[in-house]
TrEMBL record:
Gene3D superfamilies, per database record: Dbl homology (DH) domain, Pleckstrin-homology domain (PH domain)/Phosphotyrosine-binding domain (PTB)
PROSITE patterns: DH_2 (PS50010), PH_DOMAIN (PS50003)
Entry keyword set: Cytoplasm, Cytoskeleton, Metal-binding, Phosphoprotein, Repeat, Zinc, Zinc-finger
Biological source species: Dicrurus megarhynchus
Keyword Transferase found: no
Residue ranges of domain DH in the record: 5-193
GO cellular component: cytoplasm; cytoskeleton
Annotated localization: Cytoplasm, Cytoskeleton
The name this protein goes by in its record: FGD2 protein
Length: 314
């Protein structure tokens, strides 16, 4: 007899969950535990750093190992009498919010592993030693750490498939659809957290290139476009190399520094976007030029190509 499609997917969910719990066990009970022991007894790495690397992996591991996996297993053993998993997944969904913290921390964790591997040979040796074990399957710590980041999208895909394959009159239909909606919300939340983290990270890099001028650093700003530009001087008919950063609320008109200590650019002028006007100039001598006029002053700028000029104007 062919197994019904929805049961195959539910079994796949159970199998992948078992493999996932093994991976979480490796992260929490092997890597985290042994690095923590080393941090407490040796001088290889501070305890704080180990905690920062692994974030809240212990809570995630316990939740899956002690709650979700056993519940799922119970359901599958009882499938023929009571074919449903939707209610269990509904219980899972609110706890997936724990992933927000782990996902937000992921990039920093990977940076810390790299930095401390360079700084502390014993730290690197311990990680290399664990990675050599059979349980690691020739994969790095960073690779294993990516698993929780990818798990929520995996639930979403499996559950979508499960709902699609359910017969219309299945007793699990209502619960499974509700569970899918809940997982979808969590996934959206987690993606938004990643996007926000990346935005802040990129913004911070830009501020560093500008020398962290106090009145410019604002976490709510959004960088829209940046790039080199030629400034036209009408006085002596020449151009000079400048650099623009366009944010949602201001345009920074900068000069590249010759000697780069710390900052790459010096801000020459800051123009408010509010009340700013931009238009193309049809100049025979200087093609691809446009005029930016704001409260502070007016700039005649030349782009490298027509496309680039249009991109700036837009």
């Amino acid at each position: 007899i062919q197994e019904p499609e929805e049961k195959k997917i539910a079994l796949e969910l159970l199998e992948t969950e078992q493999a996932y719990v093994n991976r979480l066990h490796l992260l929490d009970q092997v890597f985290y535990k042994e690095l923590m022991k080393e941090a407490k007894t040796g001088k290889a790495v501070p305890e704080e750093v180990v905690k920062m690397i692994f974030s809240n992996i212990s809570s995630i591991y316990q939740f899956h190992a002690e709650f979700f996996l056993p519940e799922l297993r119970k359901r599958m053993e009882d499938w023929n009498r009571n074919p449903r998993i939707g209610d269990v997944i509904q219980k899972l969904a609110p706890f997936l919010k724990m992933y927000g913290e782990y996902v937000k921390n992921f990039e920093k964790a990977v940076e810390l592993i790299t930095a401390w591997s360079e700084k502390s040979p014993p730290f690197q040796e311990l990680i290399a030693d664990i990675q050599k074990r059979k349980v690691c399957a020739n994969l790095t710590l960073q690779h294993h750490m990516l698993e929780p980041v990818q798990r929520i999208p995996r639930y979403e895909l499996l559950l979508k498939d499960y709902v699609r394959k359910l017969p219309p009159q299945s007793p699990d239909r209502g619960d499974a659809e509700k569970a899918l909606e809940m997982i979808f919300m969590v996934a959206k939340h987690s993606n938004a957290a990643i996007a926000e983290m990346e935005r802040l990270q990129n913004l911070w890099v830009v501020y560093q290139r500008l020398g962290l001028e106090d009145d410019i650093v604002d976490p709510s700003n959004e960088l829209i476009k940046e790039g080199p530009i030629q400034k036209i001087s009408t006085r002596n008919n020449s151009t000079s190399e400048k650099y623009l950063f366009l944010f949602n609320n201001m345009l920074l008109y900068c000069v590249p520094k010759v000697i780069q200590v710390g900052a790459e650019f010096q801000v020459h002028l800051r123009m408010d976007v509010e009340g700013m006007k931009v238009r193309e100039l049809k100049d025979i001598e200087f093609p691809h030029t446009f005029l930016v006029s704001g409260k502070q002053r007016t700039l005649e700028l030349q782009a490298r190509s027509g496309e680039e000029m249009n991109a700036w104007i837009k």
